[in-house]
């Protein structure tokens, strides 16, 4: 299946999950994340606000917020095409819809994190395979933005387990993930040689 068809199939799958399935998945995801040292011991963490049936990291974000961690959300870059800023967000802060209808914090210079500040970035996946290859929304926002990541920044993809597929072709611009976490397990990805 080509990536366009796979993306559309997996988006349909996640969109058709019930509210109850989504809530259970969000709680399961928080349990999985809380077991990971990368989540427990890192302070500056980028999340996202679930959209389009994505697995919802809201429980995990609440836990991080209450633990005194700094949480960030993606905001579309106003000038550079298909790039993101990560902006500090605390519960109750105002949000506004971007051009895709996804809520994001307003851009205020002093809330924008420079890439080296981020210790962990949690990114939403549309599809993934067991080797850690991923498919996103298809505009390359994360790939472009993460090409400037700092060496210490860990990258963890989040998805429902039903978004796993056999084999996703790796593209030259794909940024390798350190792990993929679903509502029921964590896949640690070992870098491939060569
Ligand atoms: N929750 C969440 N926030 C996120 C992302 C994401 O994947 N999930 N992004 C990760 O990149 C960025 C937004 N990226 C997007 C990329 C493509 C489409 C998209 O294709 N949307 C429409 C069609 C296009 C349109 O309306 O103009 C669609 O739903 O088919 C939406 C968002 C930033 N924020
Ligand atoms: N670092 C980059 N520099 C320039 N173009 C890029 C870069 N990364 C990705 N692209 C372009 O972005 C487009 C979308 O890439 P791709 O289909 O891999 O997106 P995706 O991984 O599904 O989305 P995302 O990264 O937002 O999750 C491709 O046409 C690709 O050429």
From TrEMBL:
Chemical reaction(s) catalysed: (6S)-5-formyl-5,6,7,8-tetrahydrofolate + ATP = (6R)-5,10-methenyltetrahydrofolate + ADP + phosphate
The UniProt record lists the keyword Nucleotide-binding: yes
Protein residues bound to substrate: 49, 54
UniProt keyword Secreted present: no
Cofactor(s), names only, from the UniProt record: Mg(2+)
Domain of life of the native organism: Bacteria
EC number, as in UniProt: 6.3.3.2
UniProt xrefs under InterPro entries: FTHF_cligase, FTHF_cligase-like_sf, NagB/RpiA_transferase-like
TM helices/strands, residue ranges: none
A GO biological process held by the record: folic acid-containing compound biosynthetic process
EC top class, as a word: ligase
Family affiliation: Belongs to the 5-formyltetrahydrofolate cyclo-ligase family.
Protein name, UniProt field: 5-formyltetrahydrofolate cyclo-ligase
Species this chain originates from: Porticoccus litoralis
